[in-house]
Design goal:
alpha+beta; 60s Ribosomal Protein L30, Chain: A; 3 domains; five-stranded mixed sheet; four-stranded mixed sheet; 8 helices; elongated
Length: 323
């Protein structure tokens, strides 16, 4: 009985020692794991890779060329359209190209469908408008209007041909330092932004009356001769009438004082009628929107005593009116 009791006590002592030793080992292991987790977490927070600005996530329609472009968001050189909140609508690897001191805009074949994407979005979101941001440089020749606006107008015309409402297009020329290439070209000139429709701006457009435009077309015995100046006037008239349905146009013919006043009135009216017909046919403008009138020799702007003065007096004025 005595031997059994001693053996039992020895068993109890060794069991207690074994449990204490196991607990001691487990505490060291937990401490090692705990220290490792703290170290890993601290390394992630200070890792500079997690503070870099990321390129936007591309959709399935984007090409992998964009992914290979070594640029951050702020220096992206392709063509992109975003919402006012910064959501990306589309992105092309190439942008439109401009040339220094000219209004020329080159549109790469890879971006040709930009107009359809923008028109589709605007049709689906009728309470929005499109802002065309067009860069130009202070180093370029001073022009009125500036090259930024001139270039943006070309993009606007393309969008209008694709079906975009002219009143929902806003031009935003942006003067900024530009590093032109050796051939005077630059390939990061434009961007598009969709923003909420500015109803006050639309109302102001409706109430605005464009300034009177004076042109000097060339006439022959067989009629009016086409010229770049006349084509430009046609585009301006067409856009103004499309942008403001309340506008009409009066084409006024003026002459010098060679001959009698009655003949000059008739001659001025004939010139005005030829210009009116040109605008109606070439511009596909309703003839009800344009009327012809004549001032004859009665509103000279220069002396009729010189050849130069008489040439200045023989002119056509395009006057806009509100119905």
């Amino acid at each position: 009985m005595k031997n059994f009791t001693i053996a039992f006590l020895v068993f109890i002592v060794w069991s207690f020692f074994g449990l204490w030793f196991y607990h001691w080992l487990q505490s060291d292991t937990l401490a090692i794991h705990s220290n490792t987790n703290v170290s890993d977490t601290t390394e992630i927070k200070t890792n500079p890779e997690y503070t870099k600005e990321r390129l936007p996530v591309l959709t399935e329609n984007e090409t992998t060329d964009v992914l290979n472009t070594p640029t951050e968001i702020g220096s992206f050189t392709g063509l992109q359209a975003t919402t006012e909140q910064g959501d990306l609508l589309f992105m092309y690897p190439e942008n439109f190209e401009i040339k220094k001191n000219t209004a020329t805009v080159y549109i790469p074949p890879s971006t040709q469908d930009f107009k359809y994407k923008l028109n589709s979005y605007l049709l689906k979101h009728p309470n929005t408008e499109l802002v065309i941001t067009s860069k130009y440089s202070a180093e370029e020749n001073i022009e009125t209007t500036n090259f930024g606006t001139q270039r943006a107008k070309q993009i606007k015309a393309i969008l209008m041909d694709a079906g975009v409402d002219a009143q929902r297009i806003v031009l935003k020329p942006h003067i900024t330092p530009i590093e032109f290439r050796k051939d005077n070209t630059y390939g990061n000139a434009f961007s598009f932004t969709i923003q909420p429709l500015d109803l006050e701006r639309i109302e102001n457009i409706k109430n605005a009356i464009p300034e009177t435009k004076t042109i000097y077309p060339r006439f022959s015995s067989s009629g009016i001769l086409n010229s770049p100046a006349l084509e430009t006037a046609l585009e301006e008239v067409k856009r103004a009438l499309e942008a403001n349905p309340n506008l009409t146009l009066t084409v006024v013919g003026h002459t010098d004082n060679i001959g009698n006043a009655t003949d000059n009135y008739t001659r001025g009216l004939e010139f005005a009628r030829q210009i009116r017909w040109y605008l109606v046919v070439k511009g596909e403008i309703s003839k009800d929107k344009i009327r012809a009138a004549s001032e004859g020799e009665g509103a000279s702007i220069a002396s009729n005593r010189t050849e130069k003065g008489r040439a200045l007096n023989q002119r056509i004025e395009l006057k806009f009116n509100v119905e």
